[in-house]
Amino acid sequence: MAGFLTKPNKRYDVRSISMPTRSHPSTLRVEEELNKLKSWEASSSSKAETICTRLSGLGVLYRCIEDLLKLPLTQQLLAQNQHEKWVNEFLDGLVRYLDICSKARDAVLLMKENVGELQSALRRRKGGELSIESTVNAYICSRKNMKKEITKSLAALKQMDNKIGASPPLNLDHHLSAVTRVLREASLITISIFQSLLLLLSVPVLNPKPTKWSLVAKLVHKGLLACESRQEDMNEVGSVDFALSSLLMQNSGKFFEAEKIQSAHERLEALNCSIDSLENGLECLFRHLIHTRVSLLNILSH
User: Fold this and answer.
1) DSSP per residue over the chain, as a string?
2) GO biological process: any one (predicted)?
3) Would you say 281 and 53 are in contact if contact means Cβ atoms under 8 Å apart?
4) pTM higher than 0.85, yes or no?
């Protein structure tokens, strides 16, 4: 059923990480934000509101990493180890995260445009214009194309996840060891949150096209009603699919027709608000990822 997502696998331990007490306060702050994100990730919720919270927390995490990179000791040790493989891997990871963040933002903006067109079509239908099928079909087609692109990004994230998970621990200076550890933890949590976001955007599409065969229509309608009691478990994208499928069922009477239009309006508005929050979260995270990469490049160039 659309709206029910498989939670991505986690390669990190959900337990809190704990640095030695003599770790620098900036390292401890990164640790604190990591533990907070991990506790949120332990939640099974796949709704946009939850993912927006995680994106915001991820932005805070990278801001703390920027502060960690500004420490003279961090800069000195990184400069001395700038040719190490793990340094290049982290830089490469930031480039990939920026690419995926950009693609996710494009997908969110496209969905926002499609939702706006659906809202306009519903207003016209409420005013007496009955045809909405073409707009819904365009929405479904766009979602399917989006899913194909998202599948590629999910595959890239999975590959990165496996690579980081297979990396052996490094025998480094205490402070540098702490830095590399939190950077790897940050990479793993970034991958996990991006996976959750992309799964939300690519939730399986429920084809709402009405059938000409009344028996099949009744069976489909019965199935929708059976799922209605579980709508609280749906995310915002799946909830819109449900409303569109219900709206396009024929012969429901004027009262139920108006009720279904109102329901679709409400769910589209909820999705639109979620999209705005996702857009803001992705833009903020994009800026922090850029700042983190620039800070690291500046250190390595001296």
Assistant:
1) -TT--PPPP--S-SSPP---TTS-HHHHHHHHHHHHHHHHHTS----HHHHHHHHHHHHHHHHHHHHHHTSHHHHHHHHHTTTSHHHHHHHHHHHHHHHHHHHHHHHHHHHHHHHHHHHHHHHHHHTT----HHHHHHHHHHHHHHHHHHHHHHHHHHHHHHHHHTPPPP---HHHHHHHHHHHHHHHHHHHHHHHHHHHHTPPP---PPPS-HHHHHHHHHHHHHHHTTGGGS-HHHHHHHHHHHHT-S---HHHHHHHHHHHHHHHHHHHHHHHHHHHHHHHHHHHHHHHHHHHHHHHH-
2) root development
3) no
4) no
State the pLDDT at residue 129: 56
Q: Which residues contact 274 (CB under 8 A, 6 or more apart)?
A: 47, 48, 49, 52, 236
Q: CB-based burial of residue 265 (10 Å sphere; 0-12 exposed, 13-18 middle, 19+ buried)?
A: middle
d(CA 128, CA 55): 41
Digit-coded pLDDT (tens) for 250-259: 555 565 677 8
Token readout for 301 is: 């160039």
Distance between CA 220 and CA 246 in Å, rounded? 9
Q: What is the CA radius of gyration of the chain?
A: 23
Give me the residues of the chain with pLDDT under 70, please.
1-23, 43-45, 126-131, 168-172, 206-233, 249-256
